[in-house]
Amino acid sequence: MVQIADSKNYKQEYAKFIEPLIDLQGKRGNIYDCNNKTLALDVPNFQLFVDPKFYLEYNKTDNQSFFNYVNSHFYVNVKEIIEKNKSLRYISLGTIDPKNIVWVKNNLPKGFGLIKNYKRFYPYANNVSQILGFSGKNKQGLEGLEKEYDLYLAGQSIKQRVNITPYGNLEFSKKPLNGASLHLTINEDIQNYLHFQLKEALKERKAKMVIGIIARPDGAIVAMDSVPSYDNNKFSNYDYTHIRINPINYLFEPGSVFKIVTMSSALDSHTFSGNETLFCENGKWKFSGHTISDVEKNGDLPFDKVFAYSSNICSAKIALKEDKEIFYKYLWAFGFGKKTHIDLPGEADGLVKDYVNLKPFDLATMAFGQGIGVSAIQIIRAYLAIANGGYLVDPYIVDYISKDGKILYKHKETKKQIVQPQTVEKVKQILTLVVEEGTGTNAQVKYYAMGGKTGTAQVASHKGGYSLSDYTGSFVGIFPIDKPQFVILVTVFDPKGVNYGGEVAAPIVAKLASMLAAYYKIEGGENVIR
């Protein structure tokens, strides 16, 4: 909208001179968290312009103080601009600093005016930037939810001539429509705490990157982030590696957190009952011309302790007994090798070796999460299936979309049963054992039952084979394991010093679970660590 100096005579004369053709932009829709905190909104800004012809003909006062402000603010000589463009009707000078807008309005000389535009603003900046993304100067969504839901969020843009009446009112033949608003499953309080914990881990472990996700069993994402992050109010200052949504598009070899597929497929297919004992070769096993190693030099282990103590050797033996047909049936059922359909742009499919040409050694290593590329969102989706009773669900972030008090869209849960309830209960028992006495003891939460799985994966080297110094440490927890309300994932990439998932990721999951318990007033269970 156009605002001009507050003089009746000036407005009458100005209306005769010009009916400006201006861009009218409807406001972009807001984005809210689950508690109606505003995460993204349009805030007004004002563009200053001058009409040199009108100024020279009608302005008879000294405007030096105003000129001094304009000159210093925009680094121009406004008097010189006017003198050199005497016949022009419109010259844009730039956008007024919001803190000065009241003074500018009160001191606006004849021949100067303001056009009201909108600028996108993100109050929580770094905390939730990768999910929200940002929109560009043309108001089009370029990343994150701003891009994915641009058709809903975008306000209408129209060009029209605006008639200024003798009394200074603006007459529009048509007003642009505003955009719709998104209401997310994200809880900004939880998101903020997750962001803080990930930053602390990045600093403490001198890591390359840290990813975290907290989701409900139905697939609703409560918080999701990766660090280093960026301020989406100043997105042009950052490299794209900070901007991209790493939890959904950064692929990595997951290590032993992938054993959720190995244990579930073995039990659900009845290849194993869960009562078997396996020989773990005292920590070294030569197979198919290669050596598979365990951290611990275990001999015989019961089925559940194979996973509690995270034996790669016995996990490989389990998968080999299943054979690739059964293993791949469940790998695909858990959603690996394809998108989860989360409502964000740029999701990766993942990398799964060709089934037809798969060699026995490939199957053996895949059983403990090596030789497969996954995203963090794919991993958490697999654990959601155990948390919700055996159903594959699609993770989602937008709960509903509204406009003018009406709901335009509401998320509808879709789920498919992939493992039987009895399998779920056995897997939950194993995941509980991991935390009680296995590799995940650092994920214990006082007064609550936690279940989960650690993972420590070597990083593939660009020279071939695997690096001897670069690792990825993960922990995925189901909390509380007896009555699941959340699945929590933390993955630390290339930590320095200690690199085991049970050391670098499990303690963070414990802190997040403690916060969730306090925030949501989750009751503690019986027979838990006190």
Please, could you describe this protein's structure?
It is a single chain. It is built from 19 helices and 25 strands. It is of the alpha+beta class and 530 residues long. It has a domain at 188-520: Beta-lactamase, CATH 3.40.710.10.
List keywords for this structure.
530 residues, 25 strands, 32% helix, carboxypeptidase activity
Provide the fold topology:
Layout: E1 2-4, H1 8-17, E2 21-25, E3 31-32, E4 38-50, H2 52-58, H3 64-74, H4 78-84, E5 91-95, H5 101-106, E6 112-121, H6 129-132, E7 134-135, E8 141-143, H7 144-148, H8 150-153, E9 157-161, E10 163-164, E11 170-171, E12 181-184, H9 188-204, E13 209-215, E14 221-227, H10 240-243, H11 246-249, H12 259-268, E15 277-279, E16 284-287, E17 290-293, E18 300-302, H13 303-308, H14 312-333, H15 360-366, H16 376-387, E19 391-393, E20 398-403, E21 406-410, E22 415-417, H17 421-437, E23 451-460, E24 466-479, E25 486-493, H18 501-504, H19 506-519
Helix pairs in contact: 9-19, 12-14, 12-17, 14-15
InterPro entries: Beta-lactam/transpept, Beta-lactam/transpept-like, PBP_dimer, PBP_dimer_sf, PCN-bd_Tpept
Domain Penicillin-binding protein transpeptidase: 215-512
Main location: membrane
Short description:
GO terms for molecular function: carboxypeptidase activity; glycosyltransferase activity; penicillin binding. With 530 residues, the chain is of the alpha+beta class.
